[in-house]
Amino acid sequence: MGAVKNKRMPRAVRERQMLDAAVRTFGQRGYRAASMDEIADLAGVSKPLVYLYLNSKEDLFTACIRREAKALTAAVRAGVQPGLPADRQLWDGLRAFFTHTAENPDGWAVLHLQARTHGEPFAAEVAATREELVVFVTQLIAVAAREAHRNPSLPDREVAGLAEALVGAAESLATWANATPGVSAKQAAATLMDFAWAGLGNLMESRPWSGSGPADGLHR
Amino acid sequence: MGAVKNKRMPRAVRERQMLDAAVRTFGQRGYRAASMDEIADLAGVSKPLVYLYLNSKEDLFTACIRREAKALTAAVRAGVQPGLPADRQLWDGLRAFFTHTAENPDGWAVLHLQARTHGEPFAAEVAATREELVVFVTQLIAVAAREAHRNPSLPDREVAGLAEALVGAAESLATWANATPGVSAKQAAATLMDFAWAGLGNLMESRPWSGSGPADGLHR
């Protein structure tokens, strides 16, 4: 980015460069402080071109939210193989989630911090993505309950509550992990998986979830 | 509220009425849509008096955030007895938290939804309260680890991560519980306690946390 000004560049490539620059600027400076001048500079294009392509600062921010939301849910879905046991799917999904948020800290800041702190219509865009993740986790928990066969009738409402708890915990941990030097995506995923699967009670007794293997557990 | 216009009313009482009206209006309508006219009407005072007491819409909103944040942390602290085992303290704290957010849905909406969706300086006020709750939970988890004696060395960073996960899960569940008819504070607390303490793995095998007694468990 920055130096590329080839006028024959396809529109899609230019637009991607603008969105890359915008996500970085919005994520690091916040929606209000971010300037269209800075975004245009970072993308290596003129400000009028940004307006021509993306219309307004608001539309540009909305486009950033949509792109980052789509990328996040796609990353989680790509990380999970539907045929595997539910705890494996959950572990794979959490690792994919935390890997994506760690590799795209500006995108995550746009989704979790910026989009929610500047009112509608941005908050609604993020709520839709969150709902998609909640539905996905809800299905996993429901499947796990059926697989265990010991509690096939875990009530829908309990399953929904557990899914809300898990997604809220993941959001909180992703933001914390990105702000805490030295916490890897895998560690964040292991912390949440142990918390979610084994529970604090078992952790206290040194019995974390064992599915990620001895090298991946919590206590090292 | 509404009908009281006694001019001899002490300032503290008047101010409380204004804040009650403001929390209700901000919580239900949102910061931007809420009007000072509506707040003054609901408080049963003139609009100039609201400005005289609270200065501006922004200052009024900040005063609401501070009052509701203080009330929430006080409720959680009041619900917990320091001498009890850590899992009992956690259960008591969660019940106090969900009871408070259920009884004060407008206050919770101001803290969790409104304050965070309107940028600084409001978001910073809420972040400070959240940090206080995280520190409190972090201490509980650290104490629990020491109590269990089997894992006295649970690393500080893991404890911090678990506390972030738990607080994020509680925030998410409180908002969900308030939006879902028929979910009681006790049910929300039981769902999170089971999730946090026993873990999903044990839940699948019908072994929830048993500390809240048979009548308080998850599966009924």
Automatic annotation (TrEMBL), chains A, B:
InterPro entries: DesT_TetR_C (IPR054129), Homeodomain-like_sf (IPR009057), HTH-type_TetR-like_transc_reg (IPR050109), HTH_TetR (IPR001647), Tet_transcr_reg_TetR-rel_C_sf (IPR036271). Keywords: DNA-binding, Transcription, Transcription regulation. Pfam families: TetR_C_46 (PF21943), TetR_N (PF00440). It comes from the Bacteria. Residues 12-72 form the HTH tetR-type domain. The keyword rRNA-binding does not apply. This is TetR/AcrR family transcriptional regulator. It comes from Streptomyces dengpaensis. Residues 35-54 bind DNA. Gene3D superfamilies: Tetracycline Repressor, domain 2.
